[in-house]
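Our consortium's second objective concerns turning raw sequence data into structural hypotheses that experimental partners can test. To show how far this objective has progressed, the report includes one record in full. It was chosen at random from the queue rather than selected for favorable results. The single chain below, 334 residues long, was entered without modification.
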Amino acid sequence: MTELHRNRALLHVRWPREVDPGRCQQVIDLAQDVTPVVQVLPPTALIADVTGSLRYHNRGPGEVARMLRTRVLAHAGVPLLVGVGPSWSVAAMASRAAAAENGGVLVVAPHEVTGWLHPLPVGRLDGIGPAQEHTLTSYGIHTIGLLAHLPEATVQRVVGGRAGRELRERARGVDHRKVVATDLPRSTSAQRRLPTDTLAPELLRSVLLSLAVELGERVRGRRQAARGLTLTVTFAGGNQIQRSRRLPLGASAHTDDLRDLGYDLLASLGLQRARVRGLALRCDDLVDASAVAEQLSFEPERAHRLSAEKAVDQLNKRFGPRTAGPAATYRHAG
């Protein structure tokens, strides 16, 4: 393996086919919270380059993979299979084999690649087709190790020029494909379904606060800011109503701003005797935070809350989501 591949850390992530599009988007959103270099592989996979994020998270590749899997299970209820490796093909093969691992994560460290790859059947090699597998096995090449040790010219004569070169390289743990980041989304949402239909305004405000906290942390983690919010209320009968509004002071990712506008949207609906089953909050028109002018605050209380917000973000990144946050979100907003 080349030095370039030894220094890479890639996560190949798979989820079940029956997962609905909304939860698929949640998986992608949470992966983009871990690293901005995420390429979606429709319909049920993505690959993420976490090489540049390891120092930020102060964790190794395997720990980052387990952190992502835990977050997705907690927020979206989706069980992931995650393969970790120094190249695209090794990570992809590891994610297929992760089902047999406790915890759904299989890590293949750079120094383990040869020992892990070479005993495997040649048909397990990432990117090989049935016809290529049949051709190779007909020549007695039954394992990836045998393929790796053949001269390149021999493999090219057997299965073709470019295909032969690529398969032999992958058998040696080398894959030159780069992860091309999917553009960060222009919106992101979070939702809560209540255990029972409710009339209680204090419960709805508590749930709405938990949504603002979740979205604020997510958007700040991506270094984005929202220009608007949309609140969706689902009633006991299944009917829905929406309200949208721009943030009054311009684009922001601060929980205070998202919370205040969320409360205003809820109040504008004039809910009195309507039983509510669920709430959803969406950050709209997301922009790069570096292009947003930070509003100066002459309120000491707000300045203190923004300082606390940074500390809470660091705690949650280190110890997991919802480790710290406003006390009011912990009573009802599960």
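The partners drew two points from this record. The mean pLDDT is 87. Residues 207 and 333 are 5 Å apart (CA to CA). Both points have been shared with the crystallography group to help prioritize constructs.
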